[in-house]
Amino acid sequence: MALMDHTYVIPANQEEVGLPNIHLLDHNYVQQLPVVQIQAQQEDNGEEAQAQNQDQEAQNQEEEAQDQAEEAQDQDEEEEEAPAQNEDEEEEEAVPRTYRIIPGIRLNSKFYVDNFGYKYYQKKVLINRITLICELQKKVNRPICHGTASISRNEMDNHILIVNPHNREPEDIDLNVPFLRNALGERAVDRTITTPSIRGLYNSEIIRHPEAAIRYTFLQSQSRAKRMRQSRRPRLPQDMHDLSEMLRDPRNTNCASTFQIPSTAFFNQELIVNGVSVGIIFANISAIERYRVQLATVEMVGIDGTYKTLPQVPGDLRSFLTFQILYKSVAFPMVYVLLGSETEETYSALFAVIRNILPLNYDRIRFVTDYERALMNAV
Hints:
Number of helices: 9
Distance between the termini: 170 Å
Strand content: 15-25%
Protein name: MULE transposase domain-containing protein
Largest sheet: 6 strands, antiparallel
Structural class: alpha+beta
Radius of gyration: 56 Å
């Protein structure tokens, strides 16, 4: 573009505020900004770019709206599926899965309780499975429940399969009492227990089962222990020979054992005279062997028979005789005899057996007896 000069001049001969007469030079900058011509093609390109930007923004907005709609739809579907899934989980949890074996009232009996508290009894034993029925099917006066289940014969596998569901709610069962009751029953009939006192058994077991002690009292334990002991007692003997045979039976070892620790068997021998059983002799052989040295110093022996302290069965018993030693002014019974005869012959046979089992110095022994002629003659 062409630059234009200024249209004004300062006269050379005019004095300005004491300035020397100098020549002014023209400005070297333009008076106005240059005008740039924009071609039509450039204007079209700008409009197209702006339009493309607007289209892109609109497309982005549509995609965002579509994404938001899809997310909202997915969320609605998840919310709809969540209750159904929870219902399925509740249905799965509503089915019993495992069981426990609980001791029954009778010794060595048992019943089954699943993880929901339903109680079952055994109905049938198959090859690999055991069929169980609900407890109400055994109670005539209770509403019937058709619940049945099946378990494996392998007790290590505690999974239970419900065949027919129950039509009732489970009852409240105290699972602590059966274990205390079973422990007391086992110890009451255990032949190795050296403490026959039921009170002692109860006091020791409630320490192991403190929660059950609240609902299972000593009186209940006492009644149960007596019933179980009575049910396991051997039958009553018919005569002395039958009693002697029963005492030698291995099944009745607890009836012929001492209460020492460890327990030992009592010496018991049938006394037979002329082929007839006339008595049974008892002695603690382990105690005799332990005090053999002390027995050798004994100088006095007492023999006493009683008719009051005598079992009513068998009926052919007549007297109960004790053979006692006097050691340091104290009498110790060493041999016990149940007699069905009191003849001199019977006493002579008895003393022959006693001499074999009791190591006394019989040459210097003094015998003290009651006034019974047959006994005095036998001594």
